[in-house]
Amino acid sequence: MTTPLLMDAATAAKVLDPTMSPKTLLRLARSGQIASRRRGRLVRFAMEDLEAYKDAAAKREDAAYKLVPTRKKRL
User: Fold this and answer.
1) What are the extents of the domains in the chain?
2) pLDDT in tens, the chain (75 residues)
3) How many of the other CB atoms lie within 10 Å of CB of 22?
4) What 3 state SS string does 17-71 have?
5) How many Å is the Cα radius of gyration of the chain?
């Protein structure tokens, strides 16, 4: 098994969303929403972890959209 390609927060933020700040990505990693690999203060992200976060976020958005009540039509 090969080791995954690891990226720093700035590169990972650009891959995930070009408008996302690296600081936001670090906050998500600290809260446990995105898996990361830490070595002291250095935080690295694997591409597979970013893809897993994208999939989970898409599922959350779909579920939230389905929970929005539909408008009832008046007769």
Assistant:
1) 6-66
2) 565 689 999 999 998 888 999 999 999 999 999 999 988 888 999 999 999 999 988 888 777 666 666 677 776
3) 15
4) CCCCCHHHHHHHHHHCCCCCEEECCEEEEEHHHHHHHHHHHHHHHHHHHHCCCCC
5) 17
Other Cβ atoms within 10 Å of 16 Cβ, number: 20
* Structural contact between residues 12 and 29, judged by C-beta atoms closer than 8 angstroms: no
Dihedral, CA of residue 6, residue 21, residue 36 and residue 33, to nearest 10: -140
CA-based diameter of the chain, in Å?
Answer: 64
Angle, vertex CA 21, rays to CA 6 and CA 51, nearest 5: 45
Instruction: Tell me the C-alpha distance between 51 and 54, whole Å.
Output: 5
Q: pTM for the full model?
A: 0.70
